[in-house]
Design a protein that fits this description.
It contains 13 helices and 11 strands. By secondary structure, the protein is an alpha/beta fold.
Length: 336
């Protein structure tokens, strides 16, 4: 099985970037930040929190805080500037300036996201101590979706021990963590987001399969119709990657099955990016691949925002934070 983390390290060698960690009081975050300083990356690490308290936590964990930039965000003069910016973004929703001030002043993820928006950091990694909704809300409200994309989605990089599938065993699964029941338009956005992820994280061109229980009309139903409509939307958008569907997973991944079910497809039998029709199938699918197929799962990683912000599980380890940060830096490098 390929070492995915080693691949990312190589891609990031001599890369410059800056990442803000809003939850710097978490010892796991400090340990991950310390691990990152040992990489061959010109990385500026920004920690948000009271400097005195951070110094105490750092000493308890034998970490040298002088390697990082520390911002006492609750007393920062940037709050006023960030409030004005946020008000301009949200006033059309009927939000008052006082409400904007309270959101920025009381929410460290909002402050971190605003740093990314203003170019004071290239990306943000948070969520070890915050609800997922809090991190994602800051991303959508402040960073906002990319032009032409209305849907922020997520993906996993799956690395299978079978190097005959995907890109030497490496595949993109989407959306497995965020959009519950996408409309055809949202499914088209998710597909574009997933293909962009493939361009960054795979070592070959993305070949995208839109999955279903039907292959080329072998089954019928609202879910099949939704995938077909998403295919139609993608064709109208003239996207710059190969995609096909609707198709079953076996047709997408097995050359033998593809030869029988869809012999003329440029994607079937060799797909490396898999787009699931809803969150049920996506979440179940990646966990089956992980638990039964012995694939390693890296993610979820958010995609579709103007700049990268990523959410952590509250049960994450320092190693998880470290890997998520490396993936965030690759998003920065490749503008994903």
């Amino acid at each position: 099985m390929i070492d995915f983390v080693d691949e990312i390290r190589l891609k990031l060698e001599n890369t410059e970037g800056s990442i803000v960690f809003p939850e710097a009081f978490d010892p796991r975050v400090l340990k991950a930040a310390d691990m990152l300083t040992r990489e061959k990356i010109y990385l500026k690490i920004i920690l948000l929190g009271n400097p005195q308290k951070l110094e105490e936590i750092a000493k308890e964990n034998n970490i040298d805080l002088s390697k990082f930039e520390v911002i006492d965000w609750e007393n920062s003069p940037l709050i006023e500037e960030f409030t004005e910016e946020f008000y301009e973004l949200r006033k059309h929703k009927g939000v008052s300036k006082d409400e904007c001030f309270n959101y920025i002043k009381c929410n460290v993820n909002a402050f971190g996201a605003m740093m990314v928006r203003k170019g004071l950091a290239d990306g943000m990694v948070s969520g070890s101590m915050s609800p997922t909704a809090d991190v994602i809300r800051a991303g959508i409200w402040i960073i906002q979706p990319k032009k032409g994309i209305k849907t922020v989605s997520s993906f996993f990089v799956m690395v299978s021990p079978d190097e005959n599938i995907g890109d030497r065993g490496k595949m993109i699964f989407s959306d497995c963590a965020l959009v519950v029941d996408p409309t055809p338009e949202q499914l088209a956005d998710i597909t574009i987001n997933a293909a962009n992820a493939g361009k960054a994280f795979l070592n070959t061109e993305p070949l995208v399969a839109l999955l279903s229980y039907s292959t080329y009309g072998s089954g019928t139903g609202p879910s099949v119709d939704k995938v077909k409509e998403a295919i139609k939307i993608l064709k109208e958008r003239n996207v710059d990657f190969k995609f096909d569907g609707e198709m079953q997973f076996d047709a997408a991944i097995s050359p033998t099955v593809a030869e029988i079910k869809c012999p003329t497809s440029e994607v079937a039998g060799k797909a490396n990016v898999f787009v699931f029709p809803n969150l049920d199938s996506g979440n179940i699918g990646y966990k089956i691949a992980q638990r039964i197929g012995k694939a390693k799962a890296y993610g979820p990683i958010l995609v579709g925002l103007n700049k990268p912000i990523n959410d952590l599980s509250r049960g994450c380890s320092a190693e998880d934070i470290y890997v998520t940060t490396l993936m965030t830096l690759l998003q920065v490098k490749d503008h994903i």
